C-alpha cells in the first residue's frame, strides 16, 4: 500500500453518510447559546459577590452575609451587642463585640456540648459585683452554667469555647458571613501525673 490518496483501496474511503450534515449556521448558533449562558452565569456570580459592597447596611444579602454599619459594632470595652430577629433568624443570632483595637468577633448566640441541646448564650456584665465580664450559657439539667471570657474562650465549666462567624471589617461596613460557622475545638485535660 502506498501513502498517496489514489493508492488507498476503495473500501477504506469514507462514504457520503459519514459527512456531517449539520449546516454551519446551526453550529455557530449552538456555540453562541453556550457562550451567552456562560456570560449569564458569570454575571450572576459576580453580582452575588459584589452585593455586600453595594447594599446599604443593615442588610442580609444572598449567601447568608449580613452587612452592618461600623456604628453597629460596640466600642472596645463596651458590652457586646446581640444581633437577631428581624435581621437574622434565631438560629443564626450572634453577639458582636470588639475584642481588641483591630479585631471584631461575632459569637454564636447558641452553644452546646457533645450530646446536649443548644443552650442560649447571654452576656453577664458583672459576676458577684466584680469587674469580671463574661458570656454565660445556661443549659439546665446536670450541666447548669458554662462561663466564657470576653474573647469567647472557655472558662469555668466550659469544655470548649463559643463558636464564631467569619467577620470582615472595612471603613464603611462590617460583613458577617453566617454561612461559615467556626466551631470551637473541645478542650481536654492532661492525664494526671503519678
What does this structure look like?
This protein has about 190 residues and is α+β, with helices and mostly antiparallel strands. The chain has a domain at about 60-180: Rieske [2Fe-2S] iron-sulphur domain (Rieske Iron-sulfur Protein). Helix content is about 15%, strand content about 25%. The chain has 1 helix and 11 strands; from the N terminus they run αβββββββββββ. The protein has a 7-stranded antiparallel β-sheet, with helices on one face. Strands 6-7-8-9 form a 4-stranded antiparallel β-sheet, with no helix packed on it. Strand 6 and strand 7 (about 120-125) form a beta hairpin. The radius of gyration is 30 Å and the shape is elongated. The mean pLDDT is about 85.
> Average pLDDT, to the nearest integer?
83
The N- and C-terminal alpha carbons lie at a distance of 90 Å
Which range best describes the helical content: under 10%, 10-25%, 25-40%, 40-55%, 55-70% or over 70%? Answer: 10-25%
The total of helices stands at: 1
- Strands of the widest sheet, in order across it, are 1-2-11-10-5-4-3
Q: What fraction strand?
A: 25-35%
Summarize the structure.
This protein is 16% helix and 27% strand. The chain has 1 helix and 11 strands, in the order αβββββββββββ. A hairpin with a 5-residue loop joins β4 (94-98) and β5 (104-108).
